[in-house]
Protein backbone atom coordinates (compact mmCIF):
# COMPACT_ATOMS: atom_id res chain seq x y z
CA UNK A 1 0.00 0.00 0.00
CA UNK A 2 1.37 3.43 -0.93
CA UNK A 3 1.18 6.06 1.75
CA UNK A 4 0.97 9.63 0.58
CA UNK A 5 2.13 12.83 2.22
CA UNK A 6 -0.04 15.73 1.16
CA UNK A 7 0.88 19.36 0.58
CA UNK A 8 1.36 21.22 3.86
CA UNK A 9 2.48 18.04 5.58
CA UNK A 10 5.11 17.73 8.29
CA UNK A 11 7.92 16.69 5.92
CA UNK A 12 9.50 18.65 3.10
CA UNK A 13 9.92 16.99 -0.28
CA UNK A 14 13.36 15.40 -0.55
CA UNK A 15 15.48 15.50 -3.73
CA UNK A 16 14.97 11.79 -4.48
CA UNK A 17 11.25 11.62 -3.59
CA UNK A 18 8.88 10.28 -6.23
CA UNK A 19 5.63 12.23 -6.50
CA UNK A 20 2.27 11.14 -7.85
CA UNK A 21 -0.34 13.30 -9.58
CA UNK A 22 -3.52 13.47 -7.53
CA UNK A 23 -5.60 13.73 -10.71
CA UNK A 24 -4.33 11.00 -13.07
CA UNK A 25 -1.79 9.16 -10.85
CA UNK A 26 1.16 9.77 -13.19
CA UNK A 27 4.40 9.42 -11.21
CA UNK A 28 7.30 11.88 -11.42
CA UNK A 29 10.53 10.04 -10.66
CA UNK A 30 13.47 12.45 -10.40
CA UNK A 31 15.86 9.69 -11.48
CA UNK A 32 14.02 9.48 -14.81
CA UNK A 33 12.96 13.12 -15.31
CA UNK A 34 10.21 13.88 -17.82
CA UNK A 35 10.80 13.14 -21.50
CA UNK A 36 7.55 14.84 -22.54
CA UNK A 37 8.63 18.20 -21.11
CA UNK A 38 12.39 17.68 -21.76
CA UNK A 39 13.31 17.50 -18.06
CA UNK A 40 16.55 15.50 -17.70
CA UNK A 41 16.94 12.64 -15.25
CA UNK A 42 18.38 13.74 -11.91
CA UNK A 43 16.07 16.78 -11.64
CA UNK A 44 14.38 16.95 -8.21
CA UNK A 45 10.69 17.88 -8.16
CA UNK A 46 11.51 21.15 -6.34
CA UNK A 47 13.71 22.22 -9.27
CA UNK A 48 11.04 21.76 -11.95
CA UNK A 49 10.08 25.04 -13.66
CA UNK A 50 7.16 26.91 -12.08
CA UNK A 51 5.07 26.36 -15.21
CA UNK A 52 5.75 22.60 -15.34
CA UNK A 53 2.60 20.49 -15.30
CA UNK A 54 1.74 16.82 -15.33
CA UNK A 55 2.43 15.23 -18.72
CA UNK A 56 -0.49 12.87 -18.15
CA UNK A 57 -3.24 15.43 -17.54
CA UNK A 58 -1.70 18.94 -17.35
CA UNK A 59 -2.36 19.25 -13.59
CA UNK A 60 -0.21 21.89 -11.85
CA UNK A 61 2.63 20.96 -9.49
CA UNK A 62 0.58 21.56 -6.34
CA UNK A 63 -1.61 18.58 -7.26
CA UNK A 64 1.30 16.18 -6.70
CA UNK A 65 1.92 14.24 -3.50
CA UNK A 66 4.93 12.34 -2.21
CA UNK A 67 4.86 8.57 -2.50
CA UNK A 68 6.36 7.03 0.63
CA UNK A 69 9.19 4.61 -0.04
From TrEMBL:
Residues 16-67 form the Rubredoxin-like domain. It comes from Azonexus hydrophilus. Belongs to the rubredoxin family. Keywords: Electron transport, Iron, Metal-binding, Transport. The keyword Electron transport applies. The lineage of its organism: Bacteria, Pseudomonadati, Pseudomonadota, Betaproteobacteria, Rhodocyclales. This is Rubredoxin. InterPro entries: Rubredoxin-like_dom (IPR024934), Rubredoxin_dom (IPR024935), Rubredoxin_ET (IPR050526), Rubredoxin_Fe_BS (IPR018527). Its cofactor is Fe(3+).
